[in-house]
């Protein structure tokens, strides 16, 4: 339809003019050289922006499990979970995830995005307190797009609370009708700001006002807590959170998403969420990789310790070089740039001149003036790699901009 094609062209032109047009950088992720990736011309690029946070996507236990599962079961699941797409490894993985978070049951989705979108919209479209009472949903201002999609796709009355602001959350909870069902949706580690939610404080408020809690641990699972159960495990509050959601695609190094919670709640979502029912399940080889990875992560404390040691080392090196770091209490190390074009330019020069890759994070992902480069050092980033990064950034970012910060 020509009118729509014309509309697309005009919209794309406008997106490009605003500097918001996204392009892909094709880099081959490789088991034998991670965190170096390989360009189509064969040259290597040192990647600082992978969400394979603890390099489990390259770990021999995960790779072997995927290869063996593919050899035995082939590459695709061959159906939805209800129609020939459930193999024993899917069930085992769900049981493992439930146990990781200390919950009765788990449910896998095709991605973390879908798990948030499908679960939140399903819950918030029910009327547990009768037709007179819609859900009141309290959503952190910096929640991920997938949670927002689930919340917006429901009939809930939505209140956005200021990011990590317990006082604001309480004032909104207090103002909501006492009889209405309430749900607080929030993340633990916020990946763009590198900060962590006050989980215990949110649980206190949820208990005081009778609200259900929905926590996205996508950027924490596998890394935080004594066994990688996330910040909720680290802070000892997992039992106070009703639904813990996560991804298999970041620290676990595989692909897919999941929710865990009470058996009846999870069974209800399994039985009614269309984003779960009407889609092909994740391949058994992917489930096998995830399962092997989680079992490994639960007892490999050294890898988690190394991740945090590497992150703290990079933060200290940024500070020593006068590089304007955004304060971070997590494993994510954002560098403040403050201008979209400069952010892109720094990223481009890092790539072209120094063979390093760090994603520029620009508006609308972060507010204007808060543009940044986001670094995620992992256990395989060495001191030499970090020194090379600091040298490169010190050459690219003008001295006055560094010291002024
Ligand atoms: N939640 C958060 C906070 C995320 O950052 C992301 C993806 N970056 C998701 C959910 C979606 O997870 P997935 O990539 O597995 O779809």
From TrEMBL:
GO molecular function: 5-aminolevulinate synthase activity; pyridoxal phosphate binding
Pathways per UniProt: Porphyrin-containing compound metabolism; protoporphyrin-IX biosynthesis; 5-aminolevulinate from glycine: step 1/1
Keyword Acyltransferase: yes
EC number annotated for this UniProt entry: 2.3.1.37
Subunit and interaction comment: Homodimer.
Pfam families listed in its UniProt record: Aminotran_1_2
Keywords, in A-Z order: Acyltransferase, Heme biosynthesis, Pyridoxal phosphate, Transferase
InterPro entries named among the record's database cross-references: 4pyrrol_synth_NH2levulA_synth, Aminotrans_II_pyridoxalP_BS, Aminotransferase_I/II_large, AON_synthase_class-II, PyrdxlP-dep_Trfase, PyrdxlP-dep_Trfase_major, PyrdxlP-dep_Trfase_small
Xref: CDD domains: KBL_like (cd06454)
Ranges where the Aminotransferase class I/classII large domain occurs: 45-393
Protein family: Belongs to the class-II pyridoxal-phosphate-dependent aminotransferase family.
Reported cofactor(s): pyridoxal 5'-phosphate
Catalytic reaction(s) noted: succinyl-CoA + glycine + H(+) = 5-aminolevulinate + CO2 + CoA
Enzyme class, broadest EC rank: transferase
GO process annotations (BP): protoporphyrinogen IX biosynthetic process
Name of this chain's protein: 5-aminolevulinate synthase
């Amino acid at each position: 339809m020509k009118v729509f094609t014309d509309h697309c062209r005009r919209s794309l032109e406008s997106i490009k003019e605003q500097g918001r047009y996204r392009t892909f950088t094709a880099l081959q992720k490789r088991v034998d050289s991670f965190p170096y990736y390989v360009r189509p011309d064969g040259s290597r690029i040192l990647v600082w922006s992978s969400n394979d946070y603890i390099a489990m996507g390259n770990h021999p236990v995960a790779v072997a499990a995927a290869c063996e599962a593919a050899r035995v079961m082939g590459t695709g699941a061959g159906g939805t979970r209800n129609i020939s797409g459930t193999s024993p490894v899917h069930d085992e993985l769900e049981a493992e995830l439930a146990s990781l978070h200390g919950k009765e049951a788990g449910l896998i989705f095709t991605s973390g995005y879908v798990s948030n979108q499908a679960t939140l919209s399903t819950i918030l479209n029910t009327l547990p307190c009768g037709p007179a009472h819609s859900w009141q949903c309290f959503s952190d201002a910096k929640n991920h797009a997938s949670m927002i999609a689930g919340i917006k796709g429901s009939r809930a009355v939505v209140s956005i609370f200021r990011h990590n602001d317990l006082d604001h959350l309480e004032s909104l909870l207090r103002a909501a009708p006492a009889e209405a069902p309430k749900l607080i949706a929030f993340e633990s580690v916020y990946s763009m700001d590198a900060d962590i939610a006050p989980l215990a404080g949110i649980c206190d408020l949820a208990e005081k006002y009778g609200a259900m809690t929905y926590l996205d641990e996508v950027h924490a699972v596998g890394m935080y807590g004594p066994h990688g159960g996330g910040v909720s495990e680290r802070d000892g509050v997992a039992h106070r959170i009703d639904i813990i959601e996560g991804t298999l695609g970041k620290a676990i190094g595989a692909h897919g998403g999941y929710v865990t919670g009470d058996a009846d709640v999870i069974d209800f979502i399994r039985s009614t969420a269309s984003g779960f029912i009407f889609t092909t399940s994740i391949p058994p080889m992917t489930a096998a990789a995830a399962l092997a990875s989680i079992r490994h992560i639960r007892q490999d404390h050294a890898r988690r310790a190394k991740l945090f040691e590497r992150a703290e080392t990079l933060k200290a090196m940024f500070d020593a070089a006068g590089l304007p770091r955004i304060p971070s209490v997590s494993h994510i190390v954002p560098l403040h740039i403050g201008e979209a074009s400069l952010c892109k330019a720094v990223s481009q020069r890092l790539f072209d001149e120094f063979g390093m890759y760090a994603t520029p994070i620009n508006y609308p992902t972060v507010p204007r003036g808060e543009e940044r480069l986001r670094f995620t050092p992992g256990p395989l980033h060495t001191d030499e790699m970090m020194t090379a990064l600091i040298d490169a950034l010190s050459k690219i970012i003008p001295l006055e901009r560094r010291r002024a910060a």
